[in-house]
Amino acid sequence: MSFIIKLGRWAAQSRLRSLALEKDNLKLELEFLRAQINPHFLFNTLNSVYSLIEDKDKTAAFIVVSLSDMMRYALYDAATTEVDVAKELAFIQNYIEIQQIRHRRRLAVELDIAPDLGPQRIPPLLLINFVENAVKHGVDKLRHDAWVRIRAYRDERGAFCFAVANARPAQAGADIHEGIGTRNTRRRLDILYPGAYALQTSHTATQFDILLRLWPPQTG
After folding, report:
1. Would you say 107 and 99 are in contact if contact means Cβ atoms under 8 Å apart?
2. Tell me: the pLDDT tens digits for 79-123?
3. Would residue 118 be called left, alpha or beta, if left means φ above 0 and alpha means ψ between -120 and 50 degrees?
4. Given the DSSP bridges, would you call strands 107-113 and 197-203 parallel, antiparallel or unpaired?
5. Three-state secondary structure call for residue 124
6. In 3D, which of 122, 216, 190, 202 has the Cα closest to residue 163?
């Protein structure tokens, strides 16, 4: 009799666990669907805004399109482990163009992307931190003569190189760019490219430079 009672209890507990699992699965499915719906709603709203202002304010319409492209990259492409570097550079270009509109004529930007970069896969949102720092610690703190230079190229050893230089306030400290974002980027690089990258920074009284090199993978 005790065996039958234990068996009944086990069956009841098993049923409860099964119901709990079904509930958790349903919750996850609903959260997944909600996550899919929210971006669609957001993009549809941006499209509606664009249609309303397209003929009235070309600059605002341009910002809406650029912002939509950036959000699509951040929501979808950035959810993957790697992206083609061309997508990251397009994201950066949209970011820079919005910053130029924001700062109007106060910001000069030079964007030099080598045409012969070839295929290069990188973790998404790896490079944007360097550009954001250039704006945050350089452009935003200067009243005039603000500038940013961005280069993407391959060096003589075939390494992918990403260089950012920017004007900096004369009173800025030496570690002005070494914030949480840059430290996190260094940790990402340590994990993803152990012994296969170099990140160098330098500065003068009026300029800050950062250069990232990613060595090509070893073969053979």
Report:
1. yes
2. 888 999 999 999 999 999 888 888 876 788 899 999 888 888 999
3. left
4. unpaired
5. coil
6. 202
